[in-house]
Amino acid sequence: MSVLSCQDVRVTLGGRSVLAGIDLTLAAGQVTAIVGPNGAGKSTLLACLAALRTPDSGAAHLDGQPVTAMPPRALAQRLAFLPQTPEIAWAVDARTLVGLGRIPFLGARGGGSADAAAVTQAMELAGVSEFAGRVVTSLSGGERARVLIARALAGEPEWLLADEPLSGLDPAHQLDVAGLFRVMALAGAGVVVTLHDLTMALRLADRVVVLAAGAVLADGAPVDALTPAVLRAAYGIEARVLAGAQGPIIDVVRRAG
Ligand SMILES: Nc1ncnc2c1ncn2[C@@H]1O[C@H](COP(=O)(O)OP(=O)(O)OP(=O)(O)O)[C@@H](O)[C@H]1O
C-alpha cells in the first residue's frame, strides 16, 4: 500500500510561519479531507506533498522517496494535483484538455489507443463526455472544474491531491464528484482534498485533518476530528453536530463569543 507522508514540514512566507512543523502519514485507499480556516496553510501543505513547493525544512515522501527528488515525469505518473484556481489559457476542446493528463505516459510517438481509452473513461467518470468537442473557455466555471477533474483522472493516478475540488459545483455534481473520490479510494488510490464544507468532510472522508495556524489541531475519523470544541478552536465558531437523514451534519450556530 502506497504511503504519502511529510515530516516536520515548515514553510515561512512573507516573514510569517505558514506551516509550523507538520507531520502526516497518509495511506492510499482512503479519502483524507484537510480542513481549516482561510490562511491555515492547507494549499501550502498540499503543494509540499505534491512537490510543487519545497519546504524550508522537513520533507514530503512518497513510499520513502523525497518527492522533490523524484523525476517530475515519474512523480506525475503516480500523483495528480488539482489546483484551487486552475487557469485555462488555451481555447482547446475539452477532450484535448483532458488528454493533457496523459502527457506523463506519452512516448516519442505520442498517444496510443490505451491513452485514448483512458481519456474517454476519465470523461465518462467525471460526467463531461458531452463537452468533448466544446472549447473549454466557453464552459461554465463548474463545467470547467469537472473537465479538470477528468484531466487529473486521465492519468489514472495512484494519488489525487485536489485543492477545494467541490467549490463551484452544484449540490448534485458535488455528490457525483464525492462519489468518484470514494470509488477511487475503493480501487486503492489515495485521495487528499481540501474542503470548506464541513458536513461534506464528515460524509466524504475516512479521515479529517484540521489545520489551524499552520499546525494540526485534530486528526482522525471525521466525527472524532470535527467536534464542537475543535471547531471553536479552529474557526472561532459555535457549531453542533446533528443527526441528518444521510448521516451527521454540522450546524454552524454563530461566531464564538
Ligand atoms: N507569497 C506569499 N507571501 C506571503 N504570504 C503568503 C504567500 N503565499 C501564501 N501566503 C500566506 O500563507 C498563508 C497560507 O496560505 P494557504 O493558501 O496555504 O492557506 P489555505 O489554508 O489554503 O487558505 P484558503 O482556505 O483561504 O484557501 C496565508 O495567510 C497566505 O496569505
From TrEMBL:
Keyword presence, Translocase: yes
Q: Name one GO molecular function term.
A: ATP binding
The UniProt keyword set, sorted, is: ATP-binding, Nucleotide-binding, Translocase, Transport
Ranges for domain ABC transporter come to 4-238
Task: Give the CDD domains listed for this entry.
Answer: ABC_Iron-Siderophores_B12_Hemin
* Entry function: Part of the ABC transporter complex HmuTUV involved in hemin import. Responsible for energy coupling to the transport system.
This protein's name? ABC transporter ATP-binding protein
Q: Which organism is it from?
A: Sphingomonas echinoides
